[in-house]
Design brief:
Layout (H helix, E strand, L loop, with lengths): L1 H23 L3 H12 L1 H4 L5 E2 H8 L3 H11 L5 E3 L4 E4 L15 H7 L2 H8 L1 H7 L4 H5 L3 H7 L1 H16 L2 H5 L9 E5 L5 H9 L4 E6 L1 H4 L13 E5 L9 E7 L7 H14 E11 L10 H12 L7 H10 L2 E8 L5 E7 L4
Parallel strand pairs: 4-5, 4-7, 5-6, 7-8
Antiparallel strand pairs: 1-3, 2-3, 8-10, 9-10
Helix pairs in contact: 2-5, 2-6, 4-5, 6-11, 7-16, 10-11
Length: 346
């Protein structure tokens, strides 16, 4: 029996070693995914399968190396190799196309950009210093770097818009907005979420609030929303426009608690009687349950000063800002709607 125990222990150790090595190699998959997105492989497969030679000609790449890259990506189901050595784009990988109904290509390029990739590789610094690795690598904080580099900023905002495209409509459909309310989308980027909210309520009016260079790329100018929206330039740390409902989507996770409270207090100060603050962010589950937010939390740690939060974390932020957490509304996406209202006597 002792011999069997030693053998089973040795086998378990070997399995553990093999698993850990496999996990350590995992970074190569998003690296390959980025390369495929960068050269536009999926766009050339929209009309059917092609061999590596033809794909290489169309993308200006080397056939042998492109084949090796697609061979790895095919193991996860985004592409599929047939018995003739041709690759086709699967339904799961369709969003890699630039002009897919809901394209994730810009999101892939943003999430794997060097501004995210390099700090993630230096995560040990975060453990040792308690701060992000971004400033050590790039010399300035995350958003200051973007303010200085228009090309990088464009990648970020296009990526965030792309990342949000698949989630905006289902999230907006999960909340019953007050009829004829005025919504302010705080730091709303190109306005995708505000657009979805306004379409969900035909009497709603909206204000897209962000910096001028971001607002220049907004996409609210659609026929059915004529006269129901406006843009406003400003800094949400300083002030926000008056409104009935504040939408704060994928914003608070960028910032530390003190900065988040400042944003929320500004909303509380300008909020109409009976108004609401809707924080749309990941709400992390307790325990070992998998959740995309737990991975994004490490990206926040490596590149920014913020973090993903639990329901209890949001309750503390709301309380410090003169708000109370009313409820957490789950959505079909990885994000939830954390609803806040004014605290009594605040």
């Amino acid at each position: 029996m002792n011999g069997d125990s030693r053998e089973s222990g040795a086998e378990a150790a070997r399995r553990s070693a093999a698993l850990v090595v496999e996990e350590a190699l995992g970074f190569l998959y998003p690296a390959a995914l980025r390369a495929a997105a960068a050269v536009g492989v999926a766009d050339h497969l929209a009309d059917g399968p092609l061999g590596a030679a033809e794909l290489a000609r169309l993308t200006g790449t080397r056939e042998h190396n492109l084949y090796r890259l697609l061979r790895l990506l095919a193991t996860r189901g985004l592409f599929e190799e047939d018995d003739r050595g041709r690759f086709r784009l699967t339904s799961a990988g369709d969003s890699l196309r630039s002009h897919a109904p809901v394209s994730a290509r810009a999101a892939v390029l943003m999430l794997t950009d060097r501004t995210m990739w390099l700090p993630s590789g230096e995560m040990t610094r975060c453990l040792e210093t308690g701060s992000s690795a971004f400033e050590d690598i790039f010399g300035v904080p995350f958003f200051e770097h973007f303010a200085r580099d228009e090309k990088t900023a464009a990648v970020f905002h296009a990526g965030m818009d792309s990342m949000s495209e698949a989630e905006n409509v289902p999230i907006a459909a999960c909340y019953a907005f007050p009829e004829a309310a005025t919504l302010v989308d705080v730091g709303g980027g190109y306005g995708g979420f505000l657009l979805a909210a306004l379409r969900a309520g035909p009497r709603l009016r909206g204000i897209l609030y962000d910096h001028a260079h971001v607002l220049a790329g907004h996409r609210l100018d659609v026929p059915e929303l004529t006269d129901r929206w406006a843009t406003a330039e400003g800094d949400f740390f300083a002030s926000v426009p008056a409104a009935d409902v504040y939408l704060i989507k994928r914003i608070l996770h960028d910032w530390d608690d003190e900065q988040c409270v400042r944003i929320l207090r500004n909303c509380r100060r300008e909020m109409a009687p009976g108004g609401r603050v809707l924080v749309v962010d990941a709400v992390l589950p307790q325990g070992n349950e998998p959740h995309q937010g737990k991975a994004l939390d490490l990206m926040m740690m490596a590149s920014l000063v913020g973090r993903e939060r639990t329901e209890a974390d949001f309750a503390r932020l709301f309380d410090a800002a003169g708000l109370r957490l009313v409820r957490v509304v789950p959505t079909p996406t990885v994000l939830s709607i954390v609803e806040g209202a004014a605290s009594e006597g605040a």
